[in-house]
Amino acid sequence: MSSSIPLSLRRKVVIALDADQVSPATDDVEATTQSRFLSFKTVAWCKANILRPTHDHVFLITSIDPTAIFDGGVLSAMWSSLNGTEDPHGDRVKMAETALRRLAESLHSVGVSCTIEVLRGAPAEMVTEYVHVHRGELLAVQVVGRSAVAQALALGWPEVCARSAECPTVLIKTGDLPENIGSVLDPTPE
């Protein structure tokens, strides 16, 4: 039955992951692994609680903001390539694509139709535009903890998306996800 529903008729679920979690701006392998595991847990939670593999198509996205000059990874790349012409975001985009591809493979292994895309721009604007253009019917956004000062000064991009997206939005707080949630992405033995 899963192959009988054409892609155009499936519910379009957009899962927006935090770029700092998908492609962290650090050389620390342990910190990178932990950040990516939070994204894996977010996708696993969506699979367990939202997704219907035979009826949904997932758009797995993240947005890297090229105007974010205080991004540690970008500053490091800019410093190391002062005389170069390469895009300091290029490596981060490739890392994000690789991470999203791995997450998409995890979804495919349990029967979920999925495509990936790395957007360039401010996440709040790019994610809501993406949902509009692709006619998303549900938006699930990864929320990573922010400091009390940051929360007091302005809404984070996930909250802005929840207010401005043209579809229902689920905010997924990564700090509250159970440790064993990843098991839902284990393919069943045949």
From TrEMBL:
<dbReference type="InterPro" id="IPR014729">
    <property type="entry name" value="Rossmann-like_a/b/a_fold"/>
</dbReference>
<dbReference type="InterPro" id="IPR006016">
    <property type="entry name" value="UspA"/>
</dbReference>
<feature type="domain" description="UspA">
    <location>
        <begin position="91"/>
        <end position="173"/>
    </location>
</feature>
<protein>
    <recommendedName>
        <fullName>UspA domain-containing protein</fullName>
    </recommendedName>
</protein>
<dbReference type="Pfam" id="PF00582">
    <property type="entry name" value="Usp"/>
</dbReference>
